[in-house]
Design a protein that fits this description.
Layout (H helix, E strand, L loop, with lengths): L11 H4 L2 H16 L5 H16 L5 H5 L2 H18 L6 H24 L3 H10 L5 H30 L10 H30 L18 H24 L1
């Protein structure tokens, strides 16, 4: 889970409004979804990594860590579509297209996730997208539970190991262990959620129609420059696709 947590920094991408980056992710997904060849998605993968590394100042090791999940998933998509493809044209080409689509969407999403502070994203949803604070802060609280549940899972697993409850004596043991982890983890999540709800209610969250904010997100010139550059790149990719293919 740590592979998908934002990388703190003060780069050009970090200072952008989160909604600007999110919109560009949706545009990238739209361009990729309409591609019927693997070159366009592959170019978006390269472009996303170059921008995230160069403009976002995210280290290569941080960028490569999520690929430990993405590359095996893309390989699975490739051989599955290649093996069971029943349409016209080469099966391997269709499989490669679907695999690179997955990698392209994932790399564009990494640009957003690794350079966006979750609290800033919540504020941008409230200030620019006019989302209700109740919904926005609920999403933020759920996101903050992810690393906490990961720590709790490690503690539960360590407790099982201390009691000799972890082992591979038969093929049913992993299933039993899964239920042994799921029940206390679910109970922990419910207790944490209840405590957060009580804390928010005790502080009068949502009691008034208007509320004040210590930090306010805005849309600036940098957002416009980034949006124009991304739209220009996507238009060039689509135009090149129709010209060459």
């Amino acid at each position: 889970m740590r592979a998908f947590v934002w990388h703190e920094g003060d780069s050009f991408l970090h200072r952008l409004n989160p909604l600007t980056k999110l919109l560009m992710c949706f545009l990238a997904a739209a361009v990729v979804s309409t591609a019927n060849e693997p070159i366009t998605p592959a170019l978006i993968v390269v472009l996303s990594f170059v921008v995230t590394r160069g403009v976002g100042q995210v280290p290569w090791i941080v960028l490569g860590r999520p690929m430990l999940f993405g590359i095996p998933a893309a390989f699975g998509v490739f051989w599955t579509y290649t093996l069971f493809y029943g349409g016209s044209g080469p099966a391997w080409l269709f499989g490669a297209t679907m695999a690179t689509r997955l990698l392209a969407i994932m790399s564009a999403s990494l640009l957003f996730v690794l350079t966006t502070d979750p609290s800033q994203f919540v504020r941008s949803l409230i200030h620019q997208a006019h989302v209700s604070p109740r919904i926005a802060y609920s999403v933020f609280a759920a996101y903050r539970f992810v690393p906490l549940l990961e720590i709790e899972f490690s503690s539960i697993r360590a407790a099982h190991q201390m009691r000799g409850g972890v082992g591979n004596r038969s093929f049913l043991d992993p299933i039993r262990e899964l239920f042994g982890y799921a029940i206390p983890l679910l109970a922990t999540a419910v207790r944490k959620g209840e405590r957060v709800a009580l804390a928010m209610e005790s502080r009068g969250f949502g009691a008034l129609p208007q509320r004040t904010y210590f930090r306010v997100t805005t849309l600036g010139n940098n957002d416009l420059v980034f949006a124009v550059a991304c739209v220009g790149a996507f238009v060039a990719l689509v135009a090149g696709r129709f010209y060459f293919y």
